[in-house]
Design brief:
The complex is a heterodimer of chains A (738) and B (189).
Chain A lengths: L1 H14 L1 H16 L10 H26 L1 H6 L2 H19 L8 H18 L3 H6 L1 H30 L9 H12 L3 H11 L3 H31 L6 H34 L8 H18 L4 H19 L2 H31 L7 H27 L8 H9 L5 H9 L9 H32 L12 H21 L4 H20 L11 H44 L4 H30 L13 H11 L7 H32 L4 H15 L12 H11 L6 H7 L1 H13 L1
Helix pairs in contact in A: 1-3, 1-6, 3-5, 3-15, 5-15, 6-13, 6-14, 6-15, 6-18, 8-9, 8-11, 8-16, 9-11, 9-18, 10-11, 11-12, 11-14, 12-13, 12-14, 13-14, 13-15, 16-17, 16-19, 18-19, 20-21, 20-22, 22-23, 22-24, 23-25, 23-27, 25-26, 27-29, 28-29
Chain B lengths: L10 H11 L3 H14 L6 E3 H5 L2 H5 L3 H9 L6 E3 H8 L16 H12 L6 E2 L1 H12 L5 H15 L7 E2 H7 L5 H4 L7
Antiparallel strand pairs in B: 1-2, 3-4
Helix pairs in contact in B: 5-7, 8-9
The chains are: A mainly alpha (738), B mainly alpha (189).
Chain lengths: 738, 189
C-alpha cells in the first residue's frame, strides 16, 4: 500500500501545482485573522495523499462496478472498460480545464510495474514454465528480435518509398527504436486479458512467459537503439554494433542473476523470522522490490529480476513463513498487482486525452498491420521450429491464439514517453507521432484483439483449462511416473528434462535448502508434495464438515464407516485384523480437525491486542505442522503392530469424546465456548493414555492432539493451570509452533 | 552418428525391432551403443547389477522397481537388447502416425501400473501402494500418515469397493492427467 501511495505522490505533486496556487492564496487569508480555529479547512495540508487516495478509490470503485455488471463483463475484457473509464475521467478533467495527469514513465517503471511482475513471478506455475522454457525463450528472444527488425525494416522501407509520413522522414535508427518498443508483448495487458479466458495451460504459459521474458530483449534493444540514435547513424561503427550484441546477454542474465540472488536472500532471511512473524511479508516485499530496483539501477532487465525473484523465493518462503503470513503475502501481492493494473489502464485512458498528438493515418495503419502481420509470421515459423523439439506440439489453433494474443500495453507507452529528445533529433512532431501511434496500437490490440479473443477462443474450440486441485491419486501416480521417467532417462542415457530436474533437486536438497529453509520442522521428507496434497484434501474435508455442521459430519462418518464395512466384508478372508484400524486414521483425522475447528472459535474470544503478533492458530497451519513436524524414526513392523493396537484404544476413546463434544456443542449453541473449553481440556487429558505408554506408542493421533493443544494461544493462562502435568510440555512446545 | 560398423545388429533383426517398437534406425543405433556401454561384462545382455551401476538410477527411489520392470517378461536374470528396447519403447512419444501397442496411452499406463503391482495380480493393494509411497516419501514420515495417504488414495479410486485399485480404476483416476506427455522421452536420433 505504501508503494501505491508513493506512486501518486510523484505525479500529483507537479500535476496539481496550479491548485496549490489557489490554496496558498487561501492560506493568506488565514494568516490575517489571528483567533484560534477549532476547525478549519486546509486542503493543502493533505492534498497529495488525499488525491492519491481518491485515485485509488476511483480505480477500485470502477473495478468493483464492472464486476457487479455481469453483462458488461462478458462482452468486454476488464482492461477495455478501465481504459474507457480513464478516457471519460480524462475528458471530464480536460473539459473542466484541469490538466489531466499523464502516466509518467518514472512512476510506471518504479511503482506500478514491479508489483505486477512480482506477482506474476510468484504465482508462476514453475513446473509448467520450466517444462516449456525452450519454447518460451524462443518466442521471447527470437520472436521479439524478428518482430523488431521486420517492423523497423518495413516501416523504413515504406517511409522512404512514400517520402516520409506526413512529411516526416523516418530515419532507420528512429524506426528501429520505435519498433523495439512497439514489438514487445506487454505482460500487463496479456495477463489482464488471459486471466479472464482460461485458455489451456500450454497456451497460457507460452504467451505469459513470452511477455515476461521478452523484456530483456526489449530493454537491450531499446537502449542500444536509443544510444545509436543519439550518436547518429554516421558514428555507429562495427564495434558499436558488436557491443550492442553483447548488451543483450548482459541485460538478460544480469537481471536473472539479481533476481535469483534476491530470491535466495529472501529465503535466508525468512529462515530467521521465527520470532517476528509479523515482519515476514514486509521483508519479502521490500527485498523483492530492491531486486527490481537494483536491476534497473544497472540498466538491466528489472522485469526479469522481479520474475526470477518471485520464482526463486517461492519454495523457500512457503516452507519458512507461517501460514498466516503466507496468506497475507499472497493477498497483498494480489491486491497490489491488481490495483496497479487497474490504475495503469485507467491512466492509459487519461493520458490519451492529454498530450499533443500527431495523427498520421498511414503511419498508424502501417504500424498496426506490420505488427500484426509479423507477429503472425513469427509465431507460425517459430512454432514450426519448436514443434520439432517438443513432445506436445503446439497446434495450429494454439498458434493462432498465441499470435493473436500478443497484446501491447503500458510498457510501450512508458518507453515511448521515455525516448530521449536527442534520439528523435529534437523533432517534437516526430516524437508526438510516435506517441500517438503507440497509443493507437495499444488501443487496437487491447480493444479489437482483447475483445474478440474470447469469442475466437470459443469459436475455435481452444481447449480451456480446468482449474482444480489434484486428487490424491493423480498426485501419487504422477509422482511415481516422474520417478519412473527419471529412471528411464538415465537408463537410456538421455539427459532429458526429468534427469535435469532430478539433478537440480539433488543440488537444492543438499546444498541450498539446508541453509535457506527452516529445518527445525524436520522437513526432510523427500516428497512433501504428496503430503501437501493430502493435507489440502483433509482441509477441504474439514471445511465441508464445519460448513455442513454436525449433521454433515454424521453423514460423512456414516459414509466412510459404510465403506469401511463394505470393505471389511469383502476383505474378510484376507486381512481381517487390519481393516478396521486402517479405516480409522481417516475418520480420526476428521474428528481431530473438527475439534480443532471448534477450538478455534473459542480462541476468538480470548483475543488480546498486540502490535507484534497475531494468534496463529490456523487449522491449515496445524495440519502442515503436524505433517511436517514428524521426524519420527522409521518403525519396524513389529513395533508398528503394537502401536496400532494401542492406537485403536485411543481412537475409539477420542471418537467418542469428540462426538460427545459435538453433541454438547449443538445443544448449548454458540455461547458455550468458555465453559465448553473448560470441560473439554481435562476431558482430553483423561482420554489420553497414561504417560508411561511406550514411546513407540506415541502415535500420530496423540501427537496431533498434542499439537492441537499447544496451539492454544499463549495468553490462555487458565488452560495452562488446569492442565497440570501436560502444561509444562505444552508451553515447551509453544516456541516451535508460533 | 552414422557409425554403422559399430552396430552389431543384423539388418533383418534391426528391421524387426523397428517394426515392433517403432523406433527409427538411428534411435536403435543410439540405444544399442548405450546398451553396450551398460554391458560391462560384454555378454550381450544386462544383469541387474549392470542397471544398478547407473549412478542416477541407484539414487532413484523407485530404481529397483524400474529395474525389475525390465526383467518382468524374461525368465532369466539377464536382459538382451531386444527386451531392453522393447521396454524403452513404452516411452516413445505418442504420435498418431506411428501408434503402436507399446507406446499407446494404455501401454504407458499399464507400465506404470505394473510398478505398483508386485504380485502381478492386476490389482494394487494397500500394501503395495504403501510400499511405493514409502520409497518415494522417505523414512521421516510416520507409517500412520503414509497409511492414511494410501487409504485415502485407494478410497478415492476404488469404485467397485474391493479395497484395491484395479487397472480400469487406475486408468479412470488418471483420465485427466496428460499421461501421453508425462510418460514420453524424446529419444535422440
Amino acid at each position: 500500500m505504501e508503494r501505491l501511495c508513493l506512486i501518486f505522490c510523484i505525479f500529483l505533486t507537479h500535476c496539481y501545482a496550479s491548485e496549490e496556487d489557489e490554496t496558498s492564496s487561501s492560506k493568506l487569508n488565514h494568516t490575517k485573522d489571528h483567533g484560534l480555529h477549532i476547525a478549519k479547512f486546509d486542503f493543502e495540508l493533505v492534498q497529495t495523499p488525499y488525491l492519491i487516495a481518491l485515485w485509488i478509490l476511483a480505480a477500485s470503485v470502477a473495478k468493483i462496478g464492472f464486476h457487479l455488471a455481469p453483462s458488461l463483463n462478458t462482452i468486454f475484457p476488464e482492461s477495455c472498460l478501465l481504459i474507457f473509464v480513464g478516457l471519460i475521467v480524462g475528458g471530464v478533467l480536460a473539459f473542466v480545464g484541469e490538466n489531466p495527469m499523464s502516466l509518467t514513465p518514472h512512476t510506471f517503471f518504479n511503482f506500478m510495474l514491479p508489483p505486477i511482475i512480482l506477482d506474476a513471478g510468484y504465482f508462476m506455475p514453475n513446473r509448467l514454465f520450466f517444462d516449456n522454457l525452450g519454447t518460451i525463450l524462443l518466442f521471447a528472444v527470437v520472436g521479439t528480435l524478428w518482430s523488431t527488425f521486420a517492423v523497423a525494416g518495413s516501416l523504413w522501407g515504406l517511409s522512404s518509398w512514400m517520402g516520409g509520413f506526413g512529411g516526416k522522414e523516418l530515419p532507420i535508427l528512429q524506426c528501429l527504436l520505435f519498433s523495439a518498443l512497439i514489438s514487445a508483448v506487454d505482460p500487463v495487458a496479456v495477463l489482464a486479458v488471459f486471466e479472464e479466458i482460461h485458455v489451456n495451460e500450454l497456451l497460457y504459459i507460452v504467451v505469459f512467459g513470452e511477455s515476461l521474458l521478452n523484456d530483456a530483449v526489449t530493454v537491450a534493444l531499446y537502449e542500444v537503439f536509443e544510444e545509436y540514435a543519439i550518436m547518429g547513424p554516421d558514428n555507429v561503427s562495427a564495434f558499436e554494433i558488436l557491443k550492442g550484441f553483447g548488451k543483450f546477454p548482459v541485460v538478460a542474465l544480469g537481471g536473472t542473476f539479481i533476481g535469483i540472488v534476491a530470491g535466495l536472500a529472501i529465503g535466508f532471511v525468512t529462515r530467521l523470522t521465527t520470532n517476528t512473524r509479523v515482519m515476514e511479508p514486509l521483508v519479502i516485499f521490500v527485498m523483492a522490490y530492491l531486486a527490481y530496483l537494483s536491476a534497473e539501477m544497472f540498466h538491466l532487465s528489472g522485469i526479469m529480476a522481479a520474475t526470477f525473484c518471485g520464482l526463486t523465493m517461492k519454495n523457500y518462503v512457503r516452507a519458512n513463513i507461517s501460514q498466516k503470513s503466507l496468506t497475507t503475502l499472497k493477498y497483498s501481492m494480489k491486491m497490489l498487482s491488481s490495483g496497479a493494473e487497474t490504475i495503469i489502464f485507467i491512466f492509459l485512458g487519461v493520458s490519451t486525452v492529454n498530450g499533443d498528438h500527431v495523427w498520421n493515418t498511414t503511419f498508424v495503419v502501417a504500424t498496426i498491420s506490420f505488427c500484426t502481420l509479423y507477429r503472425a509470421v513469427g509465431t507460425f515459423a517459430l512454432s514450426w521450429i519448436a514443434n520439432h523439439f517438443r513432445l506436445e506440439p503446439i497446434g495450429g489453433v494454439d498458434q493462432f491464439v498465441v499470435a493473436y494474443g500478443g497484446l501491447r500495453g503500458a510498457v510501450a507507452v512508458a518507453l515511448v514517453l521515455l525516448i530521449d529528445k536527442n534520439a528523435t533529433l529534437f523533432d517534437e512532431k516526430l516524437r508526438s507521432m510516435m506517441v500517438t501511434t503507440t497509443i493507437a496500437v495499444i488501443y487496437f490490440t487491447v480493444f479489437v484483439q482483447g475483445m474478440t479473443i474470447k469469442p475466437i477462443v470459443e469459436w475455435l474450440h481452444v481447449t480451456k483449462s480446468e482449474k482444480r486441485k489434484p486428487t490424491m491419486n493423480e498426485r501419487v501416480h504422477e509422482k511415481t511416473m516422474e520417478h519412473l521417467m527419471t529412471g528411464m532417462e538415465s537408463i537410456a542415457g538421455h539427459m532429458g528434462k526429468y534427469n535435469l530436474r532430478a539433478k537440480l533437486r539433488a543440488i537444492n536438497d543438499s546444498y541450498i535448502k539446508p541453509y535457506l529453509q527452516r529445518c527445525e520442522n524436520g522437513v526432510d521428507a523427500k516428497d512433501t508434495k504428496i503430503l501437501e496434497t493430502y493435507s489440502k484434501l483433509m482441509m477441504e474435508d474439514m471445511k465441508t464438515v464445519t460448513i455442513m455442521g454436525p449433521g454433515g459430519k454424521q453423514l460423512r462418518h456414516q459414509d466412510s464407516v459404510m465403506r469401511a464395512k463394505k470393505r471389511l466384508h469383502i476383505d474378510d478372508g484376507i486381512g481381517t485384523s487390519d481393516t478396521n484400524e486402517d479405516q480409522a486414521p481417516d475418520v480420526v483425522k476428521m474428528d481431530e480437525l473438527l475439534e480443532k475447528g471448534l477450538q478455534e472459535k473459542n480462541a476468538y474470544r480470548r483475543c488480546s491486542y498486540s502490535r507484534h503478533s497475531l494468534q496463529d492458530t490456523d487449522a491449515q497451519a496445524m495440519l502442515d505442522l503436524r505433517l511436517n513436524l514428524k521426524s519420527a524414526p522409521a518403525r519396524k513392523k513389529g513395533e508398528l503392530a503394537k502401536m496400532r493396537q494401542w492406537k485403536t484404544v485411543d481412537v475409539e476413546d477420542d471418537g467418542a469424546h469428540c462426538s460427545m463434544l459435538l453433541q454438547r456443542r449443538c445443544s448449548e449453541g454458540g455461547q458455550s465456548s468458555t465453559t465448553d473449553l473448560n470441560k473439554k481440556t481435562p476431558k482430553k487429558e483423561a482420554g489420553r493414555p497414561p504417560r508411561s505408554a511406550p514411546p513407540v506408542g506415541k502415535s500420530s493421533v496423540s501427537q496431533f492432539k498434542f499439537d492441537t493443544a499447544s496451539s492454544i494461544p499463549e495468553d490462555d493462562e487458565e488452560n495452562v493451570f488446569e492442565d497440570g502435568p501436560g502444561a509444562m510440555k505444552r508451553s515447551g512446545s509453544l516456541g516451535n509452533i508460533n | 552418428m552414422g557409425s554403422r560398423p559399430s552396430l552389431l545388429l543384423r539388418d533383418e533383426e534391426l528391421a524387426e525391432i523397428q517394426k515392433e517398437t517403432g523406433f527409427t534406425a538411428n534411435q536403435i543405433e543410439r540405444l544399442y551403443s548405450r546398451f553396450t556401454a551398460l554391458d560391462k561384462t560384454a555378454t550381450g545382455a544386462l544383469s541387474r547389477e549392470d542397471f544398478l551401476r547407473i549412478p542416477e538410477l541407484a539414487i532413484n527411489p523407485l530404481g529397483e522397481r524400474i529395474v525389475m520392470a525390465f526383467f518382468r517378461h524374461s525368465d532369466e536374470d539377464r536382459v538382451n537388447f531386444r527386451q531392453f528396447v522393447r521396454v524403452l519403447a513404452h516411452f516413445r512419444p505418442l504420435k498418431k502416425s506411428r501408434a503402436n501397442a507399446l507406446n499407446s496411452r494404455e501401454g504407458k499406463l499399464k507400465f506404470a501400473f505394473k510398478l505398483y503391482d508386485l504380485d502381478d495380480d492386476d490389482r494394487i493393494t494397500k500394501e503395495e501402494l504403501l510400499a511405493v509411497l514409502q520409497m518415494m516419501v522417505g523414512e521421516n514420515i510416520s507409517e500412520d500418515q503414509l497409511m492414511s495417504i494410501a487409504e485415502r488414495t485407494i478410497l478415492e479410486a476404488d469404485s467397485d469397493g474391493d479395497g484395491m485399485i484395479g487397472f480400469e480404476e487406475f486408468c479412470k483416476v488418471l483420465d485427466r492427467s496428460l499421461v501421453e506427455q508425462k510418460m514420453s522421452i524424446r529419444f535422440l536420433n
